[in-house]
Amino acid sequence: MNIRRLTELALLSSVALIIFVIELRIPNPFPIPGVKLGLANIVTVYAVFRYQPAETALIVSVRLLLGAMFSGNPSALLYSAAGAVCCLLGMLALRNVLPEKQIWLCSVIGAMLHNAGQITAAIIIMRSFSVIAYLPLLLVTGSLAGVFTGLCTQLLLNRIKR
Amino acid sequence: MRNRKPLIAVIVIILVSACLSVLILRHSDQQAVEIVQDGAVLYTFDLNSTADRDIRISAPDGGYNLVQIRSGTICISEADCPDQTCVNMGKLQSDYLPIVCLPHKLIVRFAEEGS
């Protein structure tokens, strides 16, 4: 990895982190655990389409770790990490299947996989199946957020030519 | 658009979850409530016959939640976690949707019939 690449990755990670921290300040209209707009994932989807899988994974893990520290909520790391791993694997697989025009769809599927991962982590950690009731709610809100971040990424990819 | 299959799959999943969400958000007429932490049932109540009270539940990591029972309703009134989601969820209303506090592994839910 050359210096230029390293700098780009660091820049993207800090952009994601800044978006994440600003989003923490926005009050959540849905008082349901796990529901979030997830604006920082604009950077994730962008990286999926413009960078190597390993590089994208680096950006996401830096954001997860530092984000957990900055939000003062380290216990949330387990849930968000489980979601992020599912989301990332799914989107990396879809990257080659979906045409350029359907990046937003990739983001929606990523959001759903994120929610599924979160709930699975919650079931394991809380040792209770009752949290699965949140899955449908998370899928609906998550796919809305996914459409939004996906469209943002699509705009971004069109503007920033390689 | 070359491949429509993913799009159709996503739409089907969203529609199914939307229907399930409506079902899940329905209000419950049950009265038996249990408080579960880390997979173990700590308390069970019958909301009709329980007097107003506050229960402080400590979490293994040193945090706490304050569970409040007021005239047949139950909610988490206070927690020392940063996200406060469990407090914002308000009263327990749905059969299927428990109040959960992820950082403290705490669940407040309606108990199953007959248990």
Short description:
Chain A is mostly helical. Chain A has six helices and no strands. In chain B, 21% of the residues lie in helices and 36% in strands.
Note the topology.
The complex is a heterodimer of chains A (162) and B (115).
Chain A: H1 3-25, H2 41-50, H3 53-71, H4 76-95, H5 103-126, H6 134-159
Helix pairs in contact in A: 1-2, 1-3, 2-4, 2-6, 3-4, 4-5, 5-6
Chain B: H1 5-24, E1 32-37, E2 40-46, E3 53-58, E4 64-70, E5 73-79, H2 85-88, E6 99-101, E7 106-110
Antiparallel strand pairs in B: 1-2, 1-7, 3-4, 4-5, 6-7
Report on the architecture of this protein.
- The complex is a heterodimer of chains A (162) and B (115).
- Helix content of chain A is 75%, strand content 0%.
- Chain A has one domain (3-159): Orthogonal Bundle (Arp2/3 complex 21 kDa subunit ARPC3).
- Chain A has helices at 3-25, 41-50, 53-71, 76-95, 103-126, 134-159.
- With 162 residues, chain A is mostly helical.
- The longest helix of chain A has 26 residues, at 134-159.
- Chain A is built from six helices and no strands.
- Chain B has 115 residues and is of the alpha+beta class.
- Chain B has one domain: mini-chromosome maintenance (MCM) complex, domain 2, CATH 2.60.320.10.
- In chain B, the strands form two sheets. In chain B, strands 2-1-7-6 form a four-stranded antiparallel beta sheet, with no helix packed on it. A three-stranded antiparallel beta sheet of chain B has the order 3-4-5.
- The mean pLDDT of chain B is 86.
- Classes of the chains: A mainly alpha (162), B alpha+beta (115).
